[in-house]
Amino acid sequence: MAIEAVSASGSPLAAPGAAVAFKLAQVQSVTLAEMISARINSVLPNGGFVVGMRTAVSLSPLADTPPSGGSSAPHAPEELLRYGNGLVPRELLTPIGIGQHRLWGPAAESFKAMRADALAVGVNISVTDSYRTFDQQVELAQRKGLFKNGGLAAVPGTSEHGWGLAIDADVDRAGLEWLQANGARYGWVMPTTREPWHWEFHGAD
């Protein structure tokens, strides 16, 4: 049975999210249940969701979601929920002053303040990744495998990168030590020791 995109009222949706959902099928080790669970209530606009083959799969929440991926929305900014993880319009994200990298506004401002303070004491904090589109999440999962299977990628559609709330830091030992000692003051945490470069913005106190 084909997977169909419908609105909350049951009418078909010719939305880009439908094509996005199909992309997950290309990721090795991502099950259909995970695909539907990851995208439900987050990909399609106007209250849409992915249906189809519901009798064949469980729609229970994802198990063993990687710390670096989070769930599909626990820290998601309210104003971005309507767009979906990895589908946030570029203009709604804020540059962080490094290349083309962008984050959700408060995360970007916090990162810039943190970086400036680190530079003031001779520590440079750069990044190799920030906001990550859904397509980029799919590609990463294909290349590096899923975290729950021993790889390094979150299930596409569940990464904190997809909300503009995560960076992959490019630092030396001194930079990592500075982040570990000071990151939390700016709302940045390292959620897993398996990925010491991965930092998430959970909000400053």
Comma- or semicolon-separated keywords:
205 residues; alpha+beta; Muramoyl-pentapeptide Carboxypeptidase, domain 2; 4-stranded antiparallel sheet; two-stranded antiparallel ribbon; 26% helix; globular; disordered N terminus
Q: Would you spell out the secondary-structure blueprint of this structure?
A:
Elements lengths: L3 E3 L9 H8 L8 H8 L9 E3 L42 E2 L6 E2 L1 H16 L5 E4 L4 H11 L21 E5 L2 H10 L5 E2 L8 E4 L4
Antiparallel strand pairs: 1-2, 3-4, 5-6, 6-8, 7-8
| Mean pLDDT over all positions | 75
Query: Which regions have little confidence, pLDDT < 50, spanning 5+ residues?
Result: 1-33, 35-73
Rg over C-alpha atoms, rounded to the nearest angstrom: 18 Å
Give the CA-based shape.
globular
SSE arrangement, N to C: EHHEEEHEHEHEE
Largest sheet: 4 strands, antiparallel
Derived structural class: alpha+beta
Number of helical segments with 4 or more residues: 5
Q: Could you give the order of strands across the largest sheet?
A: 5-6-8-7
What is the second-level CATH architecture of the domain at 61-201? 2-Layer Sandwich
CATH fold description of the domain at 61-201: Muramoyl-pentapeptide Carboxypeptidase, domain 2
Number of strands: 8
